[in-house]
Prior knowledge:
Elements: H1 2-11, H2 16-26, H3 35-48, H4 52-79, H5 85-88, H6 93-101, H7 106-114, H8 119-129, H9 134-158, H10 164-204
Helix pairs in contact: 2-4, 3-4, 3-9, 3-10, 4-8, 4-9, 6-7, 6-8, 7-8, 7-9
Amino acid sequence: MDLVAGYGTFLHSQWMFPLLSAMIAVDAPIPMLPSETLLMSASALAFGEHKMLTVLALFLAALIGSAAGDLVTYGLGRSSHRVLSRSVDAGCALSTWVRRHLHLRPGVALIGARFMPGGRLVSTAAAGRYGLPLRRFLPWSLASSAAWSCYMLSIGLLLTGGNPLLSLLAGVVMAALTAGGFGLARRIQAWRRPARASKALVGVA
Length: 205
């Protein structure tokens, strides 16, 4: 009960907003932090207490953190051929799909990939790696960040009825599913790499 009470106190704290933005930003190049869980829990509490100004503040915090993290990952993808190269050049279905749509339909690539496991990292790093101009990247990054923020805030309300503990549980489940999907993509990538190498050897022979 002390842990629950402490978590509730933190959700009411003014420090929650900058921490949330920072976690969402860091989540872009390093998708390991429970930022989605925190956002969903805070939104459920705000909806449950009918604090619409807090909901708006959560949206702005999520939008700022998301856009900042996208820019960092975009910069890493553009500045180095080594940083994040495994994610961008993975050869999995997601990275192939992103590269195919990135220049012709950047909105489809950036917004669509945002809702797939590991998609934010792949799409934003690929935008920098394959030379999508910043003037085209930034508007779609903001649009995808806004769509994702609204989606996460809505989950905090629709799936939990404004109950922050149920939202916490839902966030943990979502984080586990996201991590599982990301791990599965890695396994598929590792499985396909020897197969491609074998085909290449056969072709040479």
